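Lecture notes, unit on binding sites. The following record was shown on slide 14. It pairs a sequence with 2-OXO-4-methylpentanoic acid.
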Amino acid sequence: MAESNTLKIDISKTKTSKIDSVDFNNLSFGQVFTDHIYECDFEDGEWKNPRITPYQPIALQPSAKIFHYGQSIFEGMKAYKDANGGVFLFRPEDNYKRLNLSAQRLAMPQLPKAFFMEGLYALLKLEQDWIPSAEGSSLYIRPFMIATGEGFHASPADSYKFMIALAPSGSYFSGNVKVLIEEKYSRSANGGVGFAKAGGNYAGQFYPTQLAKDKGYQQVIWTDDNTHEYIEEAGAMNIFARINDTLLTVPTSDRILDGITRKSILTIAEAEGIKTEVRKIKVEELIEASKNGSLKELFGAGTAAVVSPISGFGFKDKDYELPELEHTFGAQLKKRITDIQTNKVDDPFGWRIKVL
Ligand code: PLP
Ligand code: COI
């Protein structure tokens, strides 16, 4: 294990493991949870009491500020097991840094690195039998921080809890994803919290996404809040478009999450000789490219789905189909990134971290 131990993590084990009741060949996404969680508390101005306990309900006061003012942030990462039982993480340092960026924006305390990494490593060591090795499956890791401090005063809480829960998971989407380009609702605004992984960002997406589902689409393509002329994200993923043989994605901003999959895919694409461009993309440009046949692919990229191909999009009551190609950049890049993550190929970028 690479991470040194500077924290004393108290471990209290469950008496009855649920592992035998889980069908590891038939996993959906984030529905089954492992036996234990890691948690620690922020009280009196410091993080303390790192511990691993059985997975169980959390007792909070009704006046805890998480319930009223939404101080809640999270991360999403995965652990992978290779054919020899080795356990790996992918760029975990980046998730740790992003958690603290989110914490800063939501006026929550910074989490020291040891409380994140050592807790995560200790939990993975204890729960290693839960890490699936079947193709396309992994152990989804959900670090999160909530305000536990009490009070109806609309101000930051004085106490917090950081926890890590684990869910052996299969794929996030099944089948083709048809998306609706949003013209009315926004997921984020200039100066807002869109770049943070704040719980409320996702709550705000559910209603517009449901409206899109009612019309037969699975996801919303978010556009800029000001003009709705530029595409920004694909649901809870970053967006990529292939026009002719150039792979495009939009620049990150305070409205867009700086995805770890996004930046990894850009790096891999460049290494594989695919021409990339990071620039704003107008909805109009996609429609024109679709009409003249130069729009070859659209896909979302994120930890959960890795790469999620989009089969078509709707805009202003019209539908546009993407071509069905034999070879896609999306499939090529997904294979390369998952092969790196699961230790099937060399990792020239230094992203894969061996945990066990
Ligand atoms: N955009 C949003 C809004 C997300 O929630 C996520 C998921 O984490 C992403 C993009 C992709 O980020 P990452 O690749 O770091 O998982
Ligand atoms: C991701 O990890 O890719 C996500 O989009 C997180 C999601 C499950 C909310």
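Take-home: Residues 76, 233, 236-238, 257, 259-262, 302-303 surround pyridoxal-5'-phosphate (ligand 1) (CB under 6 Å).
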